[in-house]
Amino acid sequence: MSPLSRLAAGTTLPVVTVVIAIIAIWYVAAVALNAPFQRDTYERAKQTDVPFSQLLSDTLVQKRPVLPAPHQVATEIWQTTVEKKITSKRSLVFHAWITLSTTLLGFLIGTSLGVLIAVGIVHSGVLDKSLMPWVIASQTIPILAIAPMIIVVLNAVGISGLLPKAMISTYLAFFPVTVGMVKGLRSPEIIHLDLMHTYSASRLETFFKLRLPYALPFLFTSMKIGIAASLVGAIIGELPTGAVAGLGARLLAGSYYGQTVQIWSALIMASVLAGCLVGMIGLIEKNVLKRMGMAA
Amino acid sequence: MTTATRQQSRLTVSNVLAWGAVALSALALVTTVFNPDITALSNPTLAVAAVLLAILGVRFGLGFAHNKVGDVALGIVTALASGFLIGATSAYPGAATTGFFCLMFAAWATAWLFIERLATWKLKGNAGKLVNLIIPILFGAWILVIWQLITVGLGVPKVLLPAPADIWLRLINSVPILWADFQQTFLKAVIIGYVLGCGSGFLLAIAVDRIPFLRRGLMPVGNLVSALPIVGIAPIMVMWFGFDWPSKAAVVIIMTFFPMLVNTVSGLAASDAMQRDLMRTYASSDWQTLFKLRLPMAMPFIFNALKINSTLALIGAIVAEFFGTPIVGMGFRISTEVGRMNVDMVWAEIAVAALAGSLFYGAVALLERTVTFWHPSVRG
Questions:
Q1: pLDDT at position A7, please?
Q2: I want to staple A246 with a disulfide (CB 3.0 to 4.6 A). Which of A99, A172, A279, A284 is the partner?
Q3: Which domain holds residue A9?
C-alpha cells in the first residue's frame, strides 16, 4: 500500500480535501457575488475594458463585500484579536470572552439542573410520569423566541448583566443533560441492582456506587450537545440587549451597518469557540473515563 | 430494599401531603386571607374551599377510601377548591396574604396527592395509556393554576408576567394578527425551508454514500458544522435575500441541512454486512439494495433528523426575523411587542409558536410510527 492510498483510506486526506474544496467554492462564490458591485463601480468611474485579472483582485478586497473572501475574514480576525488590546471594545477576544462567560454560567446551571431533574425522575414514579413528558415538550417550544422578552423584562426589574442571558443558555443546555442522564442512570442492569440489594446498600449508596458511574459516559455525551446549545443561547441572548457586547452583539451591529467582514469574523470566532468547548469536554471525558477504567 | 418498605415510604409521602393539607386549610380558617380584613369565614366560597380541602385531607390521612373512587373524589374536590380560589382572587387582586398562601399550598398538596395516587393505578391496555396521558396534562394544568393564583393574588405587574387568563383573552381577541404572523413565519418560511433543507440534505447524503472518499471527508466536517451556532448566519441571509420570507427560509434550509446529511449518511451505514450479502445473493442492483434494504434501515436515523429539524426550523425562522422583516411575522411581533411592553401579546404569540412547534413535532413522530412500525422502539 502506497503512503498516499493509506492516507486516503484514513480520514485526514478526505477531510483536508473537503476543507480545501469548501474554501475554493467560497472564493469562487465571493468573486461571483461581488462582481456586480465592482462592475457598477467601474461604470461610475467611467473605466471601460477592465482586464479580468483586475476585476478578480478588486472583488476580493472590497470594503463591504456581499461575501467577504476567506483571507479578508482571516485578516479581520487577526487584526481584532492579536493586534488589539484585549480590553478594547474592538477586540474580538473581549467580545468572545463575554459570550464565553455567559455560555459557561448557563451551561453550569443547566447541567446541574438537568442532573437534578434526572435524579428526581429516576427515583420518583410520579415525576417520571408527570414531568418527563413536559421536559420533552419543552424543546418543541421555540424558546429562543422569548429570549428578547426574558432579557427586556428582567432588565426592567433591575436584573441585568450575565444572569438573564445565561438563563437562555440554561434552558437550552438542561434538556440534553436531563434526557441523557435519565437514560444513563437507568442503564445499570437488573443483575447489578440486585447485587446492590444483596449488599443491603441504601438508595444513596446505590446511586453513588452504581448508577452514577454508569451514567457518566451518557453525561459527557449530553454535555457536549449541551455546551454547543448553550453557546447558541448566549449569542441569541445578546441580540436584544441593544448590541452592547458579545459575539451576538457583533453580529447585530454588523448587520445594522452592513459590515459583512465583521459578521463573518464573529461567526468564525463563534465556531472556533464551539469547537474548543466541545473539544474541552471531550478531553475531560477522556481523562475521567480513563481514571475510572472505562476508556476503550 | 424490599418492596414492602418501598410501599411504606411512598405511603408516608402521601400521609405527609394529606395531613399537610389539613393543617394548612385549618390555618387558613383562622388567618387573614386577603388584605385588609377578609378572612376565610367572611367569604363563603373560601370557607367552602378550606373545609373541603380539610375534609379531604382527614379522609385520606385516616385511611378511608384508598381506592379509585376516593382518588377521583380527591381530583374533583381539588379542582373545585382551585376554582373557588381563582374566583376569589380575581375579586381581590394583589391583596393576598398568609391565609391565601395556606389555601394555595393546601390545594397544591392535594393536587400532588391526586397525581401520586393516579400514578399508582395499575390499568391495562388503553385505559393505562389514557392515565399516562392524563397525568402530564393535569401537571401542566396545575402549573397554569398556580401561575394564575400567584400572579393575580400577589398583583404581579402585567409587564413582568401576565396571568394565563389575560393571555388567553388576548389570544382570542387578536386571532387575525396571530393568523397573519403564523402564515408568514410558519406556512411560508418554516415549511418551505424545512422541505428544501431536509430534501437537499437527504439527496446529498445519497450521492455522498456512493463515494466512500467523499463520505469520510464530509462526515467529520458535517458533524462539526452541526455543533456550530448556525443561527448566526441569519443577518447575512437577510442581507442577501431581503426582508421577506425567502431570507428566513434560507436560514432554515442551512440549519436543517447538516443534521439531515449526517443522520442519513450514518443511517445508510446501519444495515449489516450479512443483510447486504443476502441482497447480493438475490442479484439485486445497487439501487434495489438502496430502496429495499438500506433506506428502510436508515429510516429511524432520518426521522431522528426530521424531529430535530422540526424544532430547529421554527427557531431559525423566528430568530432570523429579529434581523429585519416586513411588518408581519412571529419574530417581528415578539420583538416589537416587547418594546411596547405588551407582554400578554408576546405570550399569546409564544403560545401559538409552542402549539405549532408541538403539533409539527407530533406529526413527524406520528409519521415515524407508521413508517418504522418494524423497529423495536415502536413495537415494544
A1: 64
A2: A99
A3: 3-67
**Position of cell 381563582?**
B86
CA–CA–CA angle A184, A283, B262 (5° rounding)? 70
Note the pLDDT tens digit of each residue in A20-54.
888 888 888 888 888 888 778 887 877 777 777 77
DSSP H or E segment with residue B38: strand B38-39
Instruction: State the pLDDT at residue B86.
Output: 80
Ranges for all domains in chain B classified under CATH 1.10.3720.10:
171-379
Residue at A79 is within a domain: no
Instruction: Give A46→chain B minimum CA distance, Å.
Output: 27
- Name the residue with higher pLDDT: A111 or A69: A111
Nearest-Cα distance to chain B for A49, in Å, is: 28
Model pTM score: 0.79
From the CA of A294, how many Å to the nearest CA of chain B? 24
Are residues A167 and A266 located together in one domain of the fold? yes
Specify whether the CB–CB gap between A169 and A108 falls below 8 A: no
Q: Confirm or reject contact between B4 and chain A (CB < 8 A).
A: no
- Please answer yes or no on whether B228 and A258 come within 8 Å at the CB atom: no
- The reply to whether residue B160 touches residue A22, judged by beta carbons under 8 angstroms, is no
User: What CATH number should be reported for the domain whose range is B171-379?
Assistant: 1.10.3720.10
CA B193 – CA B175 distance, rounded (Å): 25
pLDDT value at position B214? 82
* Whether residue A103 sits in one domain with residue A63: no
Question: Is A76 among the domain residues?
Answer: no
